[in-house]
Amino acid sequence: MDTEQTYTLADLERFEFPGTPLAVLGHPVRHSISPAMHNAALAELAKTSPRFKDWSYYRFEVPAESLLESLPLFHAKGFLGLNLTVPHKVIALDGVETISASAQQMGAVNTLRRTESGYEGFNTDGYGMEMGIQKALGSTLESNAVILLGSGGAARAAAVQCVQSNATRLYLGNRTPTRLATLQALLASLPGQTAIQTFELAQLPPELPETGILINATSLGLKAEDPAPVELSQLPLGWLVYDMIYNPAATVLLQQAIERGHSTANGLSMLIHQGARSLQLWTGADFEVSVMERAALNALHLPK
Description:
about 35% helix, alpha/beta, 6-stranded parallel sheet, 11 helices
């Protein structure tokens, strides 16, 4: 089977996917570079371990309303692992048999691993984000103030990770007050010393500390015509700016941050590290994450 093709549920029903198949499910998903990353890592693993020679990673376009009914079919077809992207991370909670403790706290899953009777759910987004920030910006969540924009599945994982990693203060901004309240309630139930404050996206919180990390977990920036999710004029210049969006490589938010002199990074580092953690969960094997990084840069036609 062609791992570069984007498949549908009709294809899943019609074809057999040989060996040990893995896949990413999303809507839309055609833009995903996960197959390139994972297949590169699997090829590297196969050089030293014959058991990985028949492993392959695919891409499936699955509408939100079809996700739950599709999971038993992926299971029947022998898919050992599934990655979930927008809009499936919260929906999938109703379709898994068990959920890891961290994914339960995050209220979303992005990685499924096959068991004999169904799938177990994990969330590698928080880990991926923290590792991405560390590698791309040389900073950590621990002992830092964080501004987090958004309240969807990726934002939930990021917020929980901030609390678990002992950020000093977490400022939550979103356009929908009810979703913001839900996320705040979730975080209030977690152990930790992180102070939590909410704000409306129209205006950054006043009296910010001189340093910190601003993280965009909204979808604003995916389209060329999207505005920046916040106005950066009141953000102290010591703050780092991290955008989970990796394509385009420089969103309007990052362009504005660069113009103001902030250190910035996009979400490619997060994608790579959350993907690496997923693959470790499926294979139980160690590999060089740099293999996935090179494949990702190549897929995006960026310099290595």
